[in-house]
C-alpha cells in the first residue's frame, strides 16, 4: 500500500486541490480524497497528477516504417500506395523483430502519456503465410513487449479472411494475416487463457474490416464468445471503401454494420471517418466508441471525422496512434480540434454545453472513450481504477502559469517540450524523470532491427 499526495490532480470531475491517492499492493487505486492534509507517510507528487491516457488503436510493427513514406512514388499516392509499402515491410518481419519494435514503441508511448494500449494485431503467420508451431507466437510477442515496457494491453487478435467485400480471395501480400473462423476461434481461446494470469492484460474481439470478413463469420465469433468484452473493427477509413461497400450491398459501411450487428457501447469503430449525418447520429446513439487516429488519418490523407457534430450528440470517442507516424497524446488531441477548425474555418469547435475549455473536453473525452474501448479499469484517478498516472512538470513555464481551466489547453496546444516527467502504471513508476529502465538496450536493439529491415 502506498499513499500519494498531490497539490493538484485531475479527477473525473476536474482539477482538485490537495489530493490524497491510496494505491494497493496490487496497483489499484483504493481511495481518492481532495482537500486533505498530507499524511506523514504520504509520498509527495512533484508536479501535476493526471490520469494516463489509453491508446485505443495500434499496429506496433508499423512504427518501423514511420517517416519512410513521405516521398512521392506514384503521382496518385494515397492510402493504397502506402499500404503496398506496408505490405513489403510485413513480408520481412521475424517474431524477435516484432517484439523489439513493440517494446521500443510501448516505451515511447509511456513517455508520451499513453499508459495502456489496444493492439489491433493482424500479423499471425510466418513469412511464407504458414502458421507457426504455436499459432499465438506473434501475439505472445506483443504481450511480452507490453510486459517488458510495463504498459497495459488489450490484445485484439484480428480476424482477417478476405481481400474485399463479398469474400474476395486474399492477395499475395496478405498471407500473414489470414485465418478462417475456426483457426481464429482457436487462437482467441488460446490467447485468452495465456493472458488470464497477466493483471494488466486482456483480450478483445476484432474484425479487420467489412472488407475482410463476412456477416456469418462475425456472428459465429460473437456467439462463441458471448461474455462482455471489447469488439473492434476498421469501419470507414477511405472513400473507396465506402464506394465498394455501396456497390456490393447498397449500403454504406456504418449503415451495413448497424443493420446487421448489435452494435453497442462495447464496440469501437476505428476510422469512422466518412459518415453521413444519419450515421453520425446512429453511432452516437448506440454508445459505441469512435476510434480516432488523428495523426495517422492526416498522414494517410483519409479525411476528417465530423467531430463537432458528433460531440454535440454526446458521442463517445477516444484516440489511437495507429501507424505511429507520431506518438504523442497532446499532438493527437490537438489535431482533433485543428481538423475541425480547418474543415469549418472557425475556432473552438470541440466544446460541450458545460465545458467551454477545449483541452478539458479533449482530455476527459479521450480518457472515457479509451477506458471503454480497452475494457479495462483505466483512464481515471478514482477508487477502483488501476493506478496509471502521469506527473506533468510543475516547472514548465506554460503549466506553472496556467489556472485550472487553462492547464490542459496549455499542455495540448502550447507546450513545445514534453512536460511528462514521471509515469506510473499498475502502481509502479516506470518512467522516472523521462527515463525507462530499458532505454539503452531497447534503443540499441531497435536501431539494429530498423537497419535489418531496410537492408
Ligand atoms: Zn488500423
Q: How would you characterize the overall build of this protein?
A:
- By secondary structure, the chain is an alpha/beta fold.
- It is globular, with a radius of gyration of 21 Å.
- It has two domains: 2-50 and 382-439, Urease, subunit C, domain 1 (Roll), CATH 2.30.40.10; 59-374, Metal-dependent hydrolases (TIM Barrel, Alpha-Beta Barrel), CATH 3.20.20.140.
- Helix 4 links the parallel strand 8 (152-157) and strand 9 (201-203).
- 50% of the residues are buried.
- It contains 15 helices and 18 strands.
- The chain is 38% helix and 20% strand.
- It has helices at residues 79-90, 95-112, 137-149, 181-195, 215-224, 239-249, 253-260, 277-286, 294-299, 307-312, 329-344, 358-374, 397-400, 404-414, 439-454, and strands at residues 2-11, 14-23, 29-33, 43-44, 48-51, 53-58, 114-121, 152-157, 201-203, 205-209, 231-234, 267-270, 289-292, 316-319, 389-392, 420-425, 428-432, 435-436.
- The protein has a five-stranded antiparallel sheet, covered by helices on one side. A five-stranded parallel sheet has the order 10-11-12-13-14.
- Zinc ion is lined by residues 57, 59, 120, 234, 270, 322.
